[in-house]
Fold these 2 entries.
Entry 1:
Amino acid sequence: MLFRNVMLPPKITKISTLIHSHIRRKLSRTAVKYQIKNDSSGGVMQIFDRKTKTLQRERAASAQDVNLYDYLKEEIGYRLADRIFDIKRKFKCAADIGCSRGYVSKHISIDSVEELILCDVSQANLDSVIVGDGVKVIKQILDEENIHFESNSLDLVVSSLNLHWVNDLPKALNSIISALKQDGVFMASVFGGETLYELRSSLQLAELERRGGLSPHISPFTEVRDIGSLLTRAGFTMLTIDTDEIIVNYPTMFELMWDLKGMAESNAALNRSLHLHRDTQFAAAAIYEQLYGKYDEETQRSGIPATFQIINMIGWKPHPKQPKPIERGTGEVSLKDLHRLDEIIKEIKTVKLDDDNEKK
């Protein structure tokens, strides 16, 4: 194969170990940091081209082989729906923002949600969405940049792999918490900063070698610490934020890029480079294989891994009856006594039983 014959120059080999690990963190933080900075001054930096992203979604939804590219979003949607089942409550009205082809809604049952509002910018997605039996469904066209619901009208809001394309994420979160009732819950999954770090570093190293400079070919992603800050600023409480890492193996870099296009996850940044030269592509594929390639002994085939970091978040709208942390200084057990925890619990129980007997 042609790209296997492209060798890394000595200069690139020396700096590759330094650059590819640095790129994993550096560029992924750009979007959210600019949002926070500009939001306080009244303006929002436009990172993504929303018209381009809408066209990408329409094209992907209308493709005849759309089912071939659902594997990643299907998995994330199932995991997000499973988190809904962990909450022992029946939600009267819920909204799925950026529902796409129903990756979350197909797993929601009538035991968890009575009425579900499905929202997406693509009519083709709404037409093909799948919903669990018995759930009342309302479909509406909605752009994630402009989320509008009646105040205090929703018990649950979910969003799966959608909000990472929003320019004004603080505004979106403010709209969501405004739409939630007291003690309502917001659950979402977005791509994190470690997503596709292998592809990003390979493309940058290839362009540095072939073109003498760098240009963005992968959209920036957010970081876990930024998500926590944004949720807190919006007013959410009892936050739960965690990450999953899914590694998908592909034969070469080209199959990965083709699947990203089929998922409607192609680059939509305003400053993106619209053309990637063929020699740069072959060089990037060779770098990708040399830095990250793996050989599968079972299949006796070589391939390349692609990392998808998923940030999962849960936030609740404040309610007076929600559990709150106790005041500082009211603790009765020191952390240095944790090794005696069983003894301390027995002592506390004994004291309480003695007090109850005295009252009787």
Note: The beta strands are 91-97, 113-120, 136-141, 154-160, 180-191, 237-250, 294-296, 301-316.
Entry 2:
Amino acid sequence: MDAMFDICYLSSDGTTIESDDIPQTKENVWILGKKYSAIQDLDRIRRDISSIIWCTYRKGFVPIGDEGLTSDKGWGCMLRCGQMVLGVALIRIHLSTDWAWSPETRDPTYLKIIQRFEERKQAPYSIHQVALMGACEGKAVGQWFGPNTIAQVLKKLVVYDKWSSLVIHVALDNTVVKEDILAQCIVKNDRGDASDIPDSINVSDWMPLLLIVPLRLGLSEINPVYVEGLKICFQSPQSIGVIGGKPNQALYLIGCVGDEVIYLDPHTTQKSGLVESKSTDEQKEMDCSYHCKYASRIPILAMDPSVAVCFLCRTKSDFEELCINIKTNVMKESQPLFEICEKRPSHWGPSNADIDLQNISMFTDIEDDRQFDDSDEEFEIL
């Protein structure tokens, strides 16, 4: 099985390709809120990166939409980044922060998570469900998303999947409002039928929170004043990365080292298939296709300025710790990325469950109507 996983990292003459994923540096490496030594922890860094569910373009799936699209190449990279963030959240909630994948992994909970992202219409977070829910945000199937749109789509989808046991809150106007989040996450006794929620989730207390903060950190490029704030976010124990990218490409930014961000790239087109029970060679190979052995790096200032910063708070104490970190570190910057307040600003009006996000989008991406072909280079986040 390890040979099956490694085969993608061989050159044409069969020799192993040396990766430049992690630099040999004395600076700390931060991946999904964890600190590593680039020199002493390289194997552990790669193990943890390969444990992330890697969602990429796929081809040959059941047709989506009126045009009958059978591949998301050229338009689905932001959708795939959203899937990756959600995959990290589900693994941390239902397995653990330190859980590690291997080609031999057949943990039933892991399989239940991976099956949620398969290219099946019935899978809660399949490309079909994400693309079709995007239509509610005014995005036709095959049309590209921005970070704000994918955040709103994920928020809607988790409502229909009780097993995931997750609340998604999308911050409005660069402001995290504690009052709104507490209202969403503190579970009341009259919550209703919770039979589909795993026993490991204490529904009488706190529903795990995926907090997504859409931001624009410049007009056409990142303003350097925001660099330190981004690093603080990557170093937060609650960090599960940033949905963003570089011009023409959406990427899942999982961490940083020095003045570079570390990312997983969805721009690889793989065949569709099912993992199911992972009992056949074909199913095992399909499972391996959801994991990437090496990440990549780009300078922070090479990022596109449209991003969505993501945090996972599995418990109320996690959320309180995050709030303290935001107040004492993020908001102390000369130009804070975002702020946190106890109650909704008066000019916002009442919450009304985020003013019925089932019907309207609270965010408008700075996006245009240009058309794209099926090449990997034609996605642009503006």
Note: The chain has a mean pLDDT of 86.
